[in-house]
Amino acid sequence: MEGIGDFLILGKWRFWNEDTGPLDTARAALVGGMDVRTGDNPFTADAYSPVVGAAYTQIRGRHGLNLSAMWKVTTGGNDFPVFPGESTADFGKYDVSYLYRLVPRVYSAETRGAWYAIAELNGLYETNGDHELFLSPGLMYEGRTWALEMSLQLPVQESVEHRPDTDYMVMAGVRFSF
Q1: Is 15 within 8 Å of 29 (Cβ atoms)?
Q2: How far separated are the first and last CA of the chain, in Å rounded?
Q3: Are 30 and 54 in contact (CB under 8 A)?
Q4: Can you tell me the distance from the alpha carbon of 126 to that of 26, in angstroms, rounded to the nearest whole number?
Q5: 119: nearest Cα among 158, 153, 170
Q6: SS (H, E, C) the chain
Q7: Residues 6+ apart with CB under 8 A from 110
Q8: pLDDT band per the 50, 70, 90 thresholds, residue 6
Q9: What is the pLDDT of residues 77-86, one digit of tens each?
């Protein structure tokens, strides 16, 4: 077996930004990109599928709110998918998250990082009728130029007929800002 699973390349254009304080902000962005095949193997959809989306972020004091939605126009796919978005159906996802800064209580120019509690709702929809909604509690550490986050995704609602149900997922991620 050769290759790895497909990967997603995205670009973001922040078209609106309103800073109302040193940290307080509201931002909106459009997202676009491509789900790219990685080779001829069982882990690829063997396609290049365009992706579009939008995101909104608001930070007020210790509170943060994020809303996002993305849509993939599937040009390939697997007849027997294991995960959401791998089938031949078009795929959408939507997310709502609330963050609360645990420490430090007051963020200043000297602050090197902060810990956040996260509560998310993550939805997955496919045009074949499959739909899942997850509750995802988590924890995030955010430094000045990077962030580390972990969460547990628990199904709240599942209506899946074209791939296996999801019992739960453990998510981890690292982000770099540049």
Answers
A1: yes
A2: 36
A3: yes
A4: 30
A5: 153
A6: CCCCCCEEEEEEEEEEEEECCCCCEEEEEEEEEEEECCCCCCCCCCCCEEEEEEEEEEEECCEEEEEEEEEECCCCCCCCCCCCCCCCCCEEEEEEEEEEEEECCCCCCCCCEEEEEEEEEEEEEECCCCEEEEEEEEEEEEECCEEEEEEEEEEEEEECCCCCCCCCEEEEEEEECC
A7: none
A8: confident
A9: 777 787 788 8
Q: Write the single-letter amino acid at 78.
A: N
Question: Using one digit for the tens of pLDDT, what is the confidence trace for 7-36?
Answer: 889 999 999 999 998 889 999 999 999 988
Cβ neighbourhood burial of 22 (10 Å; 0-12, 13-18, 19+): exposed
- Amino acid code (one letter) for 93: K
Strands 146-159 and 131-143: antiparallel
Structure tokens at 53: 């989306």
- What tokens appear for 128 in the block? 């074949």
The string of pLDDT tens digits covering residues 48-68 is 899 999 999 999 999 999 999
Closest C-alpha among 62, 16, 11 to residue 32: 11
Confidence of residue 43 (pLDDT cuts 50, 70, 90): low
Tokens of 102: 């645990």
